[in-house]
Amino acid sequence: MARSLKPTRRRFLLGIALYLAFGSLAGADENPWQALRSGTAVGLLRHATAPGIGDPAHFRLDDCATQRNLSEAGRQQARAIGAAFRRNGITSARVLSSRWCRCLETARLLDLGPVEPFSPLDSFFADRERANPQTAALRVFLSRPYAGPPRVLVTHQVNITALTNVVPHSGELIVAQPLADGRVRVIGRLEPGGVPAEPGAESP
Question: Whole-prediction pTM value?
């Protein structure tokens, strides 16, 4: 009768099995901030706290008064996120944003540089037919070779989920490495704003 494997041996064999199934585990302990600083990863930031769900029926893209906007807590959260970037060695970045006011305000309050409105980051919460073409456009953008400052993309939950399968909290930063085929590899999830999520209060 064969003796049972010792725990150390079992762990070793399990590690080999995982390696064969999923490939090299190198990078599993990557530092997300380092990946952002080096430019090998991008930051996908869900806008800071904006109470409510979706947008009002009279929503107009060119009029922030018709939109759902950041609360004062959300503004403080956005400033705290920017401060966290600076504490981690990122004092300036290329900042792209959805054209929705809650994203643009979040992006500006980061205080990391000029904000570029970028339509592939716009919300498609109310028009799911735009999900696939927008996500495809974002994948193409991210797959292109890039040499420049760290990139921060401020957008909405639905956009981040479509790209990464991650459902972020308001103000949560998803650090992802773009791959040549348009996919992204999630390296880490950070909540640098220091504002805990409120159960049941998540909004797109």
Answer: 0.81
